[in-house]
Amino acid sequence: MKIATSILLLCALLFAACQAPTIQRAPEFNGDLVAAGHRKIAQAPAHDKNRWRLITAIHALNLGQHDEARTLLTTAMPSAGQILQSDARTRLAQSLFSPENVKGFHGESHERAMGWFYRGMFYWMDGEPDNARACFRTAQLMDALAAQPKHRADWVLLDYLDGYITTKLGRGGGDALTRAQANAGTTALPDYNSKANVMVFLQFGFGPMKKTGGDVGEKIVYDGGHSQARAARITVGGRTLIAPAFDNLTFQASTRGNRAMDAILAKKAGIKKTGDLVGDIGVTAGAILASEPKTEGAGVALLGAGLAGKIIGGSTEPRADTRTWTNLPQHLSFAALQLPTGTHTAVIEFLDANGIALPDRQKNVSVTVQTGRDTVLFVSD
Asked: 0.70 exceeded by the pTM?
């Protein structure tokens, strides 16, 4: 009986050790998002610095600090064509007793695509449309492994921009436009104007957020993003045009397909659930048997097996990595204009699903058009 009592006490101590995760206080904010982002980069562990670089890059982009944003994106992202190699932290994430989020952050396919999308925009700003096109093509490749063929490489804007630059470089971009229009469905895409010299990149709303799904948190699911704006109206130089939403990031995130880690997490989840089940049965039945002198030996053995199951189940970490590039948009849009050389003021209004301008969202943007190169603008609602 003493042995059984000791094991029961050990069970109680093990169960008491299972505590809720610590909730950390949000960092203090001094009003400067870029400076706050750099503090987070400095404070973050090495495997999480890239996430904060990407988040801070978009803060810088929204504030017009383009050099800062460009540098952060370049630092955070691997070179084109580089295959991410398995390192010690990746191998640790694959082990039974470590969660996935111990590995270095490179984002899911839609996040990696967005990184290349922004880098392409910066190359175009710098007067290097050929390098911009290479980035847009790389971004599209990030979506090439979606589970269903119809969702593979189906970003509308990436193909559209690929074809636009190809047309402006004097070669045919019709194939890319055809692919873009096929993925755009009922949204009619404007034809290319090779003489357009003002490229307006627009984004609306708040993008999707990751959370854990499955029985024990082994899957990534998405809370859909949100955007009141569904289009933009641009008025400049005596003309007005409507820029519709080309892409929806929640759709792209949720159709990404399987990851290499998904099979590993599923295996971990199976071990955890089996361990927990064996533990529950063993501890309960063993405690009952151990309480009777005639079955004490069998009960102690069963308790031991149950405790082993509990230890394995409680130590296995199947949780998927839900770290998120938190300030991506919900929708991407684009417009191209042909304006004479000089400085113009563009009025940009963001429209809801009914085509009504959203209050307090209007932006007046100065546009300086130079001879011999495109002017590239970025505007977010």
From this structure: yes
